[in-house]
Amino acid sequence: MTHLPPPRPAECGSVDVDESGLITGANAALLAWTGLELADVIGRPLHAVLEVRLPLAGESETPADAMLRNRAGALRPVAIGALDGGRRLVVFDLSPDSSFARPFGAGRRSGRRGQERLEILLAASVAFAETRTEDAVFELLADVAKRSFSASHVSVHLRRDGRMMMTAGVNPLIDHWPQGYQPTGARTLLGGEVIVIRTPDDVTAIVPDAPMADVFRAAGIHGAISSPIRYKDEALGSMIVYFDHPRDFDDEAVPLAEALSNQAAQALTRIDLEEKQRRDAMLDAVTGLPGRRLFEDEINRMIQERPAAICVLFIDLDGFKSINDALGHAAGDTLLRQVGARLQSFVRAPDVVGRFGGDEFIATAAVDDNDGAVALAERIRAALAEPYDGIPTHLPISASVGAVLVQSDENPFIVVDQLIRAADHSMYDAKAAGGNRVEVTRYRSA
């Protein structure tokens, strides 16, 4: 059994170039390595900061060695690969203290087998940089690990909502797993260390409180390597590589498992950050509520969960134009924020409130039946008619509320755009009838 402290994640730098080889962008990791600011590198030729030893003309090129030049002119060894037809280079730190360097150096020293592993590892670096979804990361990790180790199986496990779930690959132990014992991969995740099992008997020393040696033998598994997936001290999951034949593990095995797990962890963290940035960009600037596009995404998510009934409410303020005309747009924005806060107080996760535009708001909530939809809409209408801070009483505000009820069992196919339009039509009926009232309809899919 081999125990190592959790490795430092392998960071990925990137630099963008135009057709003439001039730098058009660089990420924070690459700038930190060079000690330069973005303004220092924009417009400079690529070779001013990156000495590429092999030409990279397109995406099909094999990842290669290069040297990165810092502000003082010192060189840092890196590995590079091309994306987007050569317009973007991904850059991996190969300096001696980096977690990416150990398997790279071992690969150089160990002949053909090590070189093959190295090429797989570098190609995986480029592939991980291109992943756009969590599922793509998991599938790629399982595939690359299986090829890198010539393994029989690989399983990838992620901790979600406090539980370990297999997200990719094949777990050959699952049919023989002890009932009630912690799930596969949990021991590695909690320990934060790579575990190497050379024979079924080795696992008894690691897990003495369960008949794991018998589990391995029953599944036909002789050995395994289990590596935690961690990023900046956060435990994300585990990767387990299985062998159905006796296997000797060389000095590269643990560093290779670490490097692949680190690449996956970094890709997962990047995707999570990109998703957060995407969602933040779709928030309404005045109220902080989801805008139309994000709200539609949330309705789709809610529909997929198939609650018994969904109520979509379209809300239009009565008298809002008078506020803007009499008090100005700043007062109008303050009012909109107060309206948004009141609406949020009426919904619970995973229900959603959004701003549709102007003085129109939209909300969705799980309800029991038509009576529940009517009661919710009426509570919202009454709350929005209450006085507002900073708004004189001679400028009253109320709301016309249109609601549409969807019964999941009656509507196997729900079109979000039709659902919103139906609620919108009900709102216009309420406004045409004098405002400050509720109109509720039932949705029927075509």
Give the SSE layout.
Layout: E1 12-17, E2 23-26, H1 28-34, H2 38-41, E3 50-52, E4 64-69, E5 75-83, E6 88-93, H3 101-109, H4 111-130, H5 134-149, E7 153-160, E8 163-169, H6 186-191, E9 195-197, H7 202-206, H8 212-219, E10 223-231, E11 234-243, H9 253-281, H10 292-304, E12 309-318, H11 320-327, H12 329-344, E13 352-357, E14 360-366, H13 370-384, E15 398-407, H14 416-432, E16 438-442
Parallel strand pairs: 15-16
Antiparallel strand pairs: 1-2, 1-6, 3-4, 4-5, 5-6, 7-8, 7-11, 9-10, 10-11, 12-14, 12-15, 13-14
Commentary on this structure:
- By secondary structure, the chain is α+β, with helices and mostly antiparallel strands.
- It folds into three domains: 1-129, Beta-Lactamase (2-Layer Sandwich); 131-281, Beta-Lactamase (2-Layer Sandwich); 292-442, Reverse transcriptase/Diguanylate cyclase domain (Alpha-Beta Plaits, 2-Layer Sandwich), CATH 3.30.70.
- It is 39% helix and 24% strand.
- It is built from 14 helices and 16 strands.
- The protein has helices spanning 28-34, 38-41, 101-109, 111-130, 134-149, 186-191, 202-206, 212-219, 253-281, 292-304, 320-327, 329-344, 370-384, 416-432, and strands spanning 12-17, 23-26, 50-52, 64-69, 75-83, 88-93, 153-160, 163-169, 195-197, 223-231, 234-243, 309-318, 352-357, 360-366, 398-407, 438-442.
- The strands form three sheets. Strands 2-1-6-5-4-3 form a six-stranded antiparallel beta sheet.
- α5 packs antiparallel against α9 (253-281).
- The longest helix is centred in the middle third of the chain and has 29 residues, at 253-281.
- The radius of gyration is 29 Å and the shape is flat.
- The chain starts with 11 loop residues before the first strand and ends with a strand.
- Residues 1-10 and 56-62 have low confidence and may be disordered.
